[in-house]
Amino acid sequence: MYQKKLHPLLFLLFLLPNLLFSQMQTPLDIALRYIEAQRHQLGLSTNDIRNIYLSDVYTSKHNRLTHIYLQQTHQGIEVSSALINVNITPEGKILYIGNRFIAHLAEKANHPTPDITASEALQNALAHLDIENDEPTRLIKKKNDRHYIFHERGISLNPIPVQLYYFPSKDKSVRLVWSLMIYTKDAQHRWQVKVDAHDGKILDIKDFVIHCDFGKPDKTCLEEDHLHTNIAKPLKSSSHKKNKPTDNNGQNANRSAFLNTYNVFPIPIESPNHGDRALVANPANPLASPFGWHDTDGAIGAEYTITRGNNVHAYQDIFNNNNSIGDEPDGGDNLDFDFPLDLSQNAPYTQIDAAVTNLFYWSNIIHDVWYQYGFDEAAGNFQQNNYDNGGVAGDYVHAEAL
């Protein structure tokens, strides 16, 4: 993604002659001039669009649309979620504009100087979440007067960022807050807490960990206004079944002629109830994963023979501590991930290699498919190495089998 960079003089562009713009307009120029010309239709004042900066800009390879994201600020402080995104065609036409700016921001925002410190805000959040902390919070890094990183020891799985924002509250006012993120030690919650920077009250709290509860099983599969008339077929054992491998185009292939073989429930089979496992050879898409699924250095040859690579690191996490214990399935030099799976046996932990292999396969499939629709490096996808294609690297997916 594009690194945030302040542009306090963006609107000096509008003072330049129209002739100059006709000769050198960039997508950013087009976006800014459009917002200025259409501010009344957008419900914004001149002040609302004066102090903005470029949050992100990139061009999609598949359709050549340029996507521009502009961040609203007040007194140099970001307004949470206050963005305008402008999508511009290769011909320089506005295709779509999305507006989440706060109208009449200066009238709604309170004083920009906090009355409590970032550390005090963190203590208030811990108390609200009933998280005990026997040690005083320790500062790791002060990026500036508005952004701090605190030590996670005894509190969180990750270091705790605390940053000053303006937050649009439910009463339509815009409050100065300390926004922080706490990933609890049991990995059950990832709390985002917004603490009022003046009186220390908790204004907003969200959990970024999703918990699913499907309730007790019902033999009739009946719920209110919901009926399954088709009964799924029984799960089949596939521990001894050997299928011919298929290549990335679904054609039968000679297994000995390929590297990268995975015994999985292949796309489009969505679950064991919908089909059988098959041996799939070389499934990596050459555009999305040009060096395969086990590369990280951008040169021919795999860096890993386990279920790890540029897009995904898949491993079992039965202890739910978000860490591998080093027992990932190993395909050897030929990257042959063919492990037994017998779904008639109620012993999932003895078949973990097959499960992790399937998880690795599907996580990479998602990466490669979404890449075709514009979710590439510049758009902020998840890769260890971006292969000089723009964006920010070092954010591959940790896929955990529980």
Q: What does this 3D model show about the protein?
A:
The protein has 402 residues and is an alpha+beta fold. It folds into 3 domains: 99 residues, Nuclear Transport Factor 2, Chain: A (Roll), CATH 3.10.450; 90 residues, no CATH class; 169 residues, Elastase, domain 1 (Roll). Helix content is 13%, strand content 25%. It has 5 helices and 17 strands. The strands form 5 sheets. Strands 5-6-7-8-9-10 form a 6-stranded antiparallel β-sheet, with helices on one face. The longest helix is centred in the last third of the chain and has 21 residues. The radius of gyration is 26 Å and the shape is globular. It starts with 17 loop residues before the first helix and ends with a strand. The N terminus is likely disordered.
- What is the CATH architecture annotation of the largest domain? Roll
Strand content: 25-35%
Helix content: 10-25%
Strand line-up in the sheet with most strands: 5-6-7-8-9-10
Could you name the CATH topology of the largest domain? Elastase, domain 1
State the domain count. Answer: 3
Average residue pLDDT: 86
Largest sheet: 6 strands, antiparallel
Runs with pLDDT <50, length 5+?
1-22, 219-242, 249-258
Label the structural class.
alpha+beta
Instruction: Write down the overall geometry.
Output: globular
Number of helices: 5
Order of helices and strands: HHEEEEHHEEEEEEEEEEEEHE
Q: What's the gyration radius in Å?
A: 26 Å
* Count of DSSP strands: 17
Please report the distance between the alpha carbons of the first and last residues.
31 Å
CATH C-level class of the largest domain = Alpha Beta
